[in-house]
Amino acid sequence: MAKALVVFLHGVGSDGDDLAPIGQHWMPLLPDVVFAAPNAPYAFEQGFGYQWFSLTDVTVENRPQRVREARAAFDATLSEMMAQHDLANQWEKLILVGFSQGSIMALDALAEGRYPLAGVVAFSGRLAFDGALTPRPYTPALLIHGRADEVIPWRESESAALRLKSADVPTETLFEPTTGHTISSQGVMRAAAFIAQCLQD
What we know:
Order of helices and strands: EHEEEHEHEEHEH
Radius of gyration: 15 Å
Number of helices: 5
Structural class: alpha/beta
Mean pLDDT: 96
Strand content: 15-25%
Number of strands: 8
Helix content: 25-40%
Oligomer: single chain
């Protein structure tokens, strides 16, 4: 049986194939770990690909509600991935690795404390959570964001890190000076090292 499952959560207008190659790159670095890269449950309304929640008329004020409404389908996707890898309900073996909208969903699950996750990596994300944070103890987070990101400002991750730390979430950050709204090779390697550490604890 696998030691852990890493589930990649893609950004809006993309699909699971976008992040799956990272898992292939990590296989030699993370032995006994399996990887899954599902499609988000909803078709992207403004083009090709999929989305975790709708961006139509989304605002700072209504985004948290959109995320709440997306939780059931998001959690069902995670449960399906875990069942496919013979890890049903073993949430303590699950690590979420999100990008952009996928990171929003991963950080929401962490902030609400729905499951005792092994760890969360959020690339270019934000914490769209308007209530008091109620995380599970000991679930660590790594937030990576490019300072040149013109889609989601890097200060969203800075703000998220401060909120998570104030809720006693072990939180690490990496802010890359010249990286835009993408995942850099440096970020990929830092995330692999973080996941390895999560699985040693």
